[in-house]
Amino acid sequence: MEMNRQGNVAPDGEVLHPSLSKEAKETAEKLRALAQSDRLAFWGEMSKDITWFKEWTKILDEGNAPFYRWYYDGQLNACYNCVDRHIKGWKKNKAAIIFEGELGDTRVLTYWDLYREVNKFANVLKNLGVKRGEVVTIYLPMIPEAVIAMLACARIGALHSVVFGGFSSDALKDRINDSGAKILVTANGGYRRGKPVPLKNNADTALQGNQCPSIEKVVVVRHTPDDVPMEPGRDLWYSDLMNEAGLYCEPEVMDAEDPLFILYSSGTTGKPKGILHSTGGYMVGVHTTTKYVFDCKDDDVYWCTADIGWITGHSYIVYGPLSNGATTVLYEGSPDYPAQDRFWAIIEKFGVSLFYTAPTAIRLFMRWGEQYPAAHDLSSLRLLASVGEPINPEAWMWFYKHIGRENCPIMDTWWQTETGAHLVTPLPGDTSFKPGAATSPFPGVEVDIFDEEGNSVKPGEQGYLVVKSPWPSMLRNLYNDSERFLNTYWNQFKGVYLSGDSAKRDEDGAIWVIGRVDDVINVSGHRLGTAEIESALVEHQAVAEAAVIGKKHELKGQAVSAFVTLREGFTGSDELIAELKQLVVSKIGALARPEDIFFTSELPKTRSGKIMRRLLRDIAEGKVLGDTTTLMDPEIISSIKDKYDKEAG
Ligand code: WTA
C-alpha cells in the first residue's frame, strides 16, 4: 500500500497545513544534504541548539570504540537546557507542563513554575546528601513531580533511574539494588482506571527487612487521599521537604560524557540491563529529533502518551520537548477512563497539535470505534507519530483518517532505549508516506540491513537491522556491565551496532522494521525478556522448566505465552495456571502476565540443550513447523504440537 501526498498540498490543490508546507520540505532537504556531505559536521551543527557552558572542540572520539565519546570536552547541564534557558524571555510564562489527572484535575506549570520546583527539589536532594554521580530511583505515577524529580537529579549531576509504576515490588527491588540508589522518590498512590495503585506499599515491600541496603531515605509525594504508613527516620513527605528547601540551586557543570541517567530495559538473558546515557550526546539527539521529526514549534501543544517509566517518556515527554521550550502534556490515566473517548477529549481540551502514541493503542481505538474520535474537535492536530512496534498498515490508515482527518502526516519512528532518540523515521516534509514503513534513517545516522556474514542484503530480503557508525544519543554502556554491553551490541559485527531487530528494504529503499530476532518480546509496545518471565515461573515449586514466547496478538502485537513442564508429583490444573500467572505479576508486573500457559511433558531442545522457542511459537500461532533438524529429538515437537492443537488450538 502506498500513498502519495504532494508535500502538504492535497491533490485538489488545497493547502493542508501551512506550517508543514514548503518550509518543512525545504528543511528536510537541507538536513539530508548537510548530513550527506559531512555527517560529523551535521552533528556539530545540530549541537548548536544546546546551551553549552563550555563549547566542545572535538566532536567524536573513536579511540576506545565502541566506547565512543561525543562532544567530550564540552560542558553543559541538561536541566539548565530544559528549564533555565527558557525563563529569560517570554517563555517564562509559557506552559511547560499541562498535567491532566485521571480524575479530570488539571495543573499547568509554566517554565517559571517548573524552574522554581526543580530548583527546590534539587536542594531537597542535596540536603538529603545526594552527590554528583550518585543514583536516585524514581517510582512515581505520571505526575509533574516525576518530571521535577528527573530534572532535579540532572541539575545536581545525580543519575536518575526511573522505574515504571506498573512494575512490582520485586522488580523495583532488583532495579534499586543493581543501581545502588541512595534515595527513592515515590508517591502514596496513583490512579489506574479509577482504582488506586499502591506505589508506597510496593516500595515498602521492596525495602522491607533491609532488602535494599543502599536506600537511606524515601521521599513520598502525596497524590491520592489515601493514608500510608510512614517509617520514622526513613520516610519523608515531599511537601514538607519542599517547604523548607532553598529557592535556587546552582546547576552543576557537567562534562558532555558524564552520565545523565540509567534506564533498565529487558534483554535476552538474565536480569534487566541498566542502559546508561550521557549528557551531551543524549541532549543533542533528543533535541534535534523533537525539533525536526515532530516539527515542534513555539505555539505547539505536544502530547506523547507514553509513560515516563520508559525511554519514550524520558526522551519525548521530558528532555526533548522541554529542551525545545515546548508545551508537553502529561496524562496520568488510561485511554478508557471514564470513557473510551478520553484521549480525544484531552486533545480537544488542550488543543493538542502534535500527537505521539503507539500502534497497540491505535488498534484498541479501532476496535472501540470511530464514533469516539468523531465526537470531538480534533482540528488542532497537525502531525501524528507512532512508536513501539511496527505499525500495521490498517492501523496507519485508521490513524491517518480518523484522528488526522487526512490532514496530518504520520511519523513512524523506529528507535530503542539504547538509541536514546529516533534513528529511522520519515520527516514531516516528506512528500510520500508508506503506511507501515519506518522509511529512512534520520539525517546523520547510518543504518543498514545485514545478512549473517555482515553484508548488506538485497531489496526485499530480510536481515539484521544495524547501525554502522556511532550517533550522539547512543547508549554509552550498561551500568556496571561492560562485558554484556560488548557482547550484546558490538561483537556480532565488529564496529557495528546490532539492534536485535530484523528489517527489510523495499525497491524504493524504504526501511520496514519487522520485529525482534532475539528472545525479547514486545507486548503492547512494552519490551519484555522471555528469560525474565521464565525465571519467575520456575520459582514455583511445581515447575521444572518453562519456555516463554511472544505469540501474535491482534491488539497487543504479541502476547506472553508459556510452555511449562512440571516436576514429578504435580499435575496441571486451572488453579495452578492462575497461581503461575499471579507469580509472574508479583515478580515483574501485570504487563508480563501470561495470556496462556500450556503444560507439556517435555520442551524441544537442540543437542546443546537450548530450548527452541521459535518452534513453540510456530505451534502457538498455528503455523507449519519451521526447521527441526537441529533438535535433539524431533519426536518431542510433533507430540507437543498434537497435544496443543487438541487442547489449546
Ligand atoms: C520496537 C522504544 C517497529 C523494536 C522506543 C525495538 C519498533 C523495540 C518501532 C525497542 C517502530 C520501537 N517500528 N518496531 N517504529 N519502535 N520498535 O527499548 O523492536 O522499549 O527494538 O524502545 O521496540 O523498545 P524500547
- Number of helical runs? 19
Radius of gyration: 24 Å
Going across the major beta sheet, what is the strand order? 13-12-9-7-8-15-16-25
- Straight-line N-to-C gap: 32 Å
- Approximate helicity band: 25-40%
Mean pLDDT: 94
Unreliable stretches, pLDDT < 50, 5 or more residues? Answer: 1-16
Strand content: 15-25%
Largest sheet: 8 strands, mixed
Question: Bound compounds, please?
Answer: 5'-O-[(S)-ethoxy(hydroxy)phosphoryl]adenosine
Net shape? globular
Summarize the structure.
The chain has 649 residues and is an alpha/beta fold.
Please render the helix and strand layout as text.
Elements: E1 3-4, H1 22-37, H2 39-46, E2 60-61, E3 69-70, E4 75-76, H3 78-82, E5 95-100, E6 106-110, H4 111-127, E7 135-139, H5 144-156, E8 159-162, H6 169-179, E9 183-187, E10 190-192, E11 195-197, H7 199-207, E12 217-221, E13 235-237, H8 238-244, E14 254-255, E15 259-265, E16 273-278, H9 280-293, E17 301-304, H10 311-323, E18 327-331, H11 342-350, E19 354-357, H12 359-368, H13 371-374, E20 383-386, H14 393-403, E21 410-412, E22 432-433, E23 447-450, E24 462-467, E25 477-478, H15 482-490, E26 497-505, E27 511-516, E28 520-523, E29 526-529, H16 530-537, E30 543-553, E31 557-566, H17 574-587, E32 596-599, H18 613-620, H19 634-647
Parallel strand pairs: 5-18, 7-8, 7-9, 8-15, 9-12, 12-13, 17-18, 17-19, 19-20, 20-21, 31-32
Antiparallel strand pairs: 1-22, 2-3, 4-14, 5-6, 10-11, 15-16, 16-25, 23-24, 24-26, 26-27, 28-29, 30-31
Helix pairs in contact: 1-2, 4-5, 6-7, 9-10, 12-14, 18-19
The structure holds 5'-O-[(S)-ethoxy(hydroxy)phosphoryl]adenosine.
5'-O-[(S)-ethoxy(hydroxy)phosphoryl]adenosine is lined by residues 265, 310-312, 387-390, 412-417, 438, 499-501, 513, 515-516, 522, 527.
